[in-house]
Specification:
The chain has about 425 residues and is an alpha/beta fold. It contains twelve helices and 21 strands. The chain folds into two domains: about 160 residues, FAD/NAD(P)-binding domain (3-Layer(bba) Sandwich); about 210 residues, 2-Layer Sandwich (D-Amino Acid Oxidase, Chain A, domain 2), CATH 3.30.9. It starts with 7 loop residues before the first strand and ends in a 17-residue tail after the last helix.
């Protein structure tokens, strides 16, 4: 088969790649999406489903460093690092420590607030255009605490959210129960925000958006990229592991946790880790949950979805190849049961996915440093679904060479050089 010419090539078939393909195609470009796994197998299909416009805070911070030793000695706590992966993790973790100051955290939060400020509107625009608005539930979100003292301890985080433009209201127990009557006695108080929505089935979003793009003329090819083909300051295309060559006028690297290998080939090293997350979807939970709920002191979430109640969370650093440890998903179910005494936890479907995480929790949305026709869109961590449509819109503008409406300097890949 002859090489394909004149295309914009998007590497990655998750929600970030699909969003980039949508906006690039809307500009009138010929677009081809290369995806290494089936579209219904990507990490984007199994996530918690949140459009978390309020979640502007980075994972880093002074409190995280103080709590890390306690979390690590708990075999089923919110953070786990597999021993064999520690040497590879150390450079990433060193950068993470550098992002833990109060000043740096504020800077990163403000950067994310500029990115996510239009997240809900950008999702709505894409869903309206693709006639997929029925996939979204606009029911806000609850943040639940076990005590007023626990909520008070988190007040600096909420103050920072407010400074970044997030709207929320405090709730006592009666207020929580108005929204989520299934919560048991452990739920003492919390916050509610309307700066949030969730998908009823993230996998359906991926599959249906891909179907829309295919019908509109976007080409899809399941294959793995072996190497980037570069010459005289331009990336000419890619070579697949099959040996097939695809030429392209522009290339967007949106391969999630697998993006670092490709950026390194282009002279752009990046500190990127797979922050592995776990969840279980309960088809018959025997309770009603109405909105997205975060259990702030125990670091897990739950989302009511079309196929059941999804309960997930946890952070595990073990790389891209280690097998899943589903005991972590089961531990989250036990935690959920403490808040929801009537929850039935039998017969759930377990899942593990790779969140592509930078040490400062800020994604890479930028041109390549050495090749003017390559652009990066990866590293969104917990917020890949949330930031997907905004990222796709920004990438399309970067490719077109038109001004963007967000200061992208905090998101540039040069910060890792």
């Amino acid at each position: 088969m002859a090489p394909t010419k004149g295309e914009t090539l998007v590497i990655g078939g998750g929600i970030i790649g699909l969003a980039c393909a949508f906006f690039l195609h809307r500009q009138g470009r010929a677009v081809r999406v290369i995806h290494a796994v089936g579209l219904d197998e990507s990490t984007s299909c199994g996530n918690a489903g949140g459009i978390a416009a309020a979640e502007v805070l980075p994972l880093s911070g002074p409190g995280v460093l103080l709590n890390t030793p306690k979390w690590l000695i708990d075999p089923l706590g919110p953070l786990s690092i597999r021993t064999a992966h520690i040497p590879r993790l150390l450079p990433w973790f060193w950068r993470f420590i550098g992002a833990c100051t109060v000043e740096k955290r504020r800077y990163l939060a403000q950067a994310m607030a500029t990115l996510l400020g239009t997240a809900l509107a950008d999702h709505e625009a894409v869903l309206d255009a693709t006639r997929l608005s029925h996939l979204v539930a606009k029911k806000g979100a609850l943040f639940v605490y076990k005590s007023r003292s626990g909520r008070h301890a988190s007040q600096p985080d909420w103050d920072l959210r407010r400074d970044c433009g997030v709207q929320f209201e405090p709730l006592e127990r009666a207020g929580l129960l108005e929204f989520e009557p299934a919560l048991g006695p452990l739920a003492a108080c919390g916050y509610r925000t309307e700066d949030w929505a969730h998908y009823r089935d993230p996998a359906e979003l991926v599959v249906e958006l891909a179907a829309y793009l295919k019908a509109a003329g976007v080409q899809f090819e399941q294959a793995e990229v072996d190497e980037m083909r570069c010459q005289e300051g331009n990336a000419r295309g890619v070579k697949l592991t099959t040996g097939r060559i695809i030429d392209a006028d522009h290339i967007v690297v949106a391969a999630g946790a697998w993006s670092a290998r490709l950026s390194r080939q282009l002279g752009d090293p990046v500190s990127l880790e797979s922050e592995r997350g776990y969840n279980t979807t309960l088809a018959q939970p025997h309770i009603e949950v109405r909105s997205f709920v975060t259990f702030s002191e125990d670091y897990f979430v739950m989302t009511p979805m079309r196929m059941g109640l999804r309960i997930g969370g946890a952070v595990e650093f073990a790389g891209l190849q280690a097998p899943p440890n589903y005991n972590r998903a089961r531990a989250l179910l036990r935690l959920a049961k403490t808040y929801l005494p009537d929850l039935h936890t039998e017969g759930g479907s377990e899942w593990m996915g790779h969140r592509p995480s930078t040490p400062d929790s800020v994604p890479v949305i930028s041109p390549a440093q050495h090749y003017s026709n390559v652009f990066y869109a990866f590293g969104h961590g917990h917020l890949g679904l949330t930031g997907s449509m905004t990222t796709g819109r920004l990438i399309a503008d970067l490719v077109a060479g038109v001004p963007v409406d967000v200061d992208l300097s905090p998101f540039h890949i040069k910060r890792f050089s």
